[in-house]
């Protein structure tokens, strides 16, 4: 299974430790195409010194098209993550967004409002506490395996 993980880069790297934790767990279920998003040594500048913005965008759109599932940590707001999610919806992809309730933020209505019940729908938003993140992913991928 190909998994596309989304997390903030130029939007701010405050949550990189939780991205790492999520990606490690996701690697139990498949190939995480965007593992670099979780690397502590990737700064807010992003990969531009190596790749350039057009190459980053075009590669990521190819990976998005290839992905079976998109998992996005959406607590730290990021234009890039919002864009990836919109493009993924247009591609009819299966999407799980994770939002940490301990943060003082309020998730954008354009993300929370895209969650369409029932729980089996393609676009899901889960509020979570950091210590529960592995359990939430186990449940999500367990359900996915049944479909
Ligand atoms: O260097 C990069 N590499 C890269 O893969 N991205 C993608 C993956 C992330 O899920 C998302 C982050 O967007 P932003 O940088 O606007 O926070 O965009 C974004 C950048 C920099 O914008």
Note the topology.
Elements: E1 2-6, H1 16-26, E2 31-32, H2 53-66, E3 69-73, H3 79-90, E4 94-100, H4 109-112, E5 123-128, H5 133-146
Parallel strand pairs: 1-2, 1-3, 3-4, 4-5
Helix pairs in contact: 1-5
Can you walk me through this structure?
The protein has 147 residues and is of the alpha/beta class. It has one domain (2-145): Rossmann fold (3-Layer(aba) Sandwich), CATH 3.40.50.450. It is 37% helix and 17% strand. The chain is built from 5 helices and 5 strands. It has helices at 16-26, 53-66, 79-90, 109-112, 133-146, and strands at residues 2-6, 31-32, 69-73, 94-100, 123-128. Strands 2-1-3-4-5 form a 5-stranded parallel β-sheet, sandwiched between helices. Helix 1 packs parallel to helix 5 (133-146). The longest helix is centred in the middle third of the chain and has 14 residues, at 53-66. It is globular, with a radius of gyration of 14 Å. The two termini are 14 Å apart. The model has no long low-confidence stretch (mean pLDDT 95). The structure holds 5-hydroxymethyluridine-2'-deoxy-5'-monophosphate. 5-hydroxymethyluridine-2'-deoxy-5'-monophosphate is lined by residues 6-11, 34, 37, 46-47, 56, 60, 78-81, 84.
């Amino acid at each position: 299974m190909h998994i596309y993980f989304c997390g903030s880069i130029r939007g701010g790297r405050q949550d990189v430790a939780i991205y790492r934790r999520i990606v490690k767990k996701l690697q139990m279920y498949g190939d995480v195409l965007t593992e670099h998003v979780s690397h502590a040594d990737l700064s807010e500048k992003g990969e531009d010194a190596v790749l350039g913005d057009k190459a980053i965008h075009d590669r990521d759109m190819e990976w998005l098209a290839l992905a079976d599932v998109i998992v996005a940590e959406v607590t730290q707001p990021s234009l890039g993550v919002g864009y990836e999610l919109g493009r993924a919806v247009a591609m009819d992809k299966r999407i799980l967004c994770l939002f940490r309730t301990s943060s003082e933020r309020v998730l954008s209505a354009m993300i929370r409002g895209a969650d369409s019940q029932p729980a089996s729908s393609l676009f899901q938003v889960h509020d979570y506490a950091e210590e529960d993140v592995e359990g939430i992913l186990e449940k999500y991928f367990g359900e996915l395996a049944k479909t």
